[in-house]
Specification:
With 271 residues, the chain is α/β, with parallel strands linked by helices. It has eleven helices and eight strands. It has a single domain, classed as Alpha/Beta hydrolase fold, catalytic domain (Rossmann fold), CATH 3.40.50.1820. Helices cover 39% and strands 16% of the residues.
Length: 271
């Protein structure tokens, strides 16, 4: 279980798979590496995939200081530096997409291209209500309720599946495992609520793909579209139909990976 100490003062647990242009995967709120599921091996067929646990979750240390999208971006950039990777494709999901935005703004030389999957630039009223509701079980340390409301991240189709709970069970180890990690996740929800890059997105110079599912309730398509509209030359991809939820990489992995790999192929990493 590799642990890389980085200049921001934490040890970050990471895993590397495959060969080719480097792709850094930045996880969303409450998750650890295993929640990427099929996305890692599918991307690793063509790329060197670096997945890591954000500070305080999975196998990574919490360290000191606040948890914000910007501080998490510094962790991610520091990990690339420690692994001697000058530049990488950066694929961020949900909170990870907010982190990817901050990376592209603060360290443009390290971001060969950005894939913002399930993203937003500033919470609107609907999203603020959704994040606040999802935050509450973590703040009160009620893991059973936290896993129950996690259903909001999935599509109506899979929620109606008679074996949904059995399908969700293998993912349980990739969510917070103790009170300390639930506390970190509460801090991550606060980072989600505070995230605000909308007026700065025009400064992103990296080629950017914004991809979202039609049924995404946490980062709705109109929020993702607002991000794409602000980033010069950004491509917007809306995945529609059954399973087009906030968890596209779990429900529609083939479709998501196809869109992402096609985009990465157009923008090879240059040394």
């Amino acid at each position: 279980m590799p642990l890389q100490r980085v200049r921001t003062g934490v040890g970050l647990h990471y895993e590397v798979s495959g060969e080719g242009d480097p792709v850094l995967l930045v996880m969303g709120t409450s998750g650890s590496i295993g929640l990427w599921a099929e996305k890692v091996p599918r991307l690793a067929e063509r790329h060197r995939v670096i997945a890591f646990d954000n500070r305080g979750l999975g196998g990574s240390e919490r360290g000191e200081g606040p948890i914000t999208a910007a501080s998490m971006a510094e962790d991610a950039c520091a990990l690339l530096e420690a692994l001697e990777i000058p530049a990488a494709h950066v694929v961020g999901w949900s909170l990870g997409s907010a982190v990817a935005q901050e990376m592209a703004l603060a360290r443009p030389e390290q971001v060969a291209c950005a894939v913002l999957y399930a993203t937003w630039g500033r919470c609107d009223g609907f999203q603020r209500s959704m994040f606040t509701a999802l935050r509450h079980p973590y703040a009160t340390r009620d893991m059973e309720a936290a896993l129950a409301v996690a259903g909001l991240a999935f599509s109506p189709q899979i929620l109606d599946h008679p074996e949904f709970l059995q399908l969700l069970e293998p993912m349980a180890p990739f969510f917070p495992q103790n009170e300390e990690q639930m506390g970190v996740t509460t801090e991550q929800w606060d980072a989600d609520l505070a995230h605000d890059t909308l007026d700065r997105l025009g400064a992103i110079s990296a080629p950017t793909l914004v991809v979202v599912g039609e049924q995404d309730l946490l980062t709705p398509p109109w929020q993702a579209k607002a991000v794409a509209d602000r980033i010069p030359g950004a491509r917007y991809e809306l995945i529609t139909g059954p399973g087009s939820s906030h968890c596209l990489h779990l429900e529609r992995p083939e479709d998501l990976v196809r869109v992402v790999t096609d985009f990465l192929a157009e923008h090879p990493v240059t040394a």
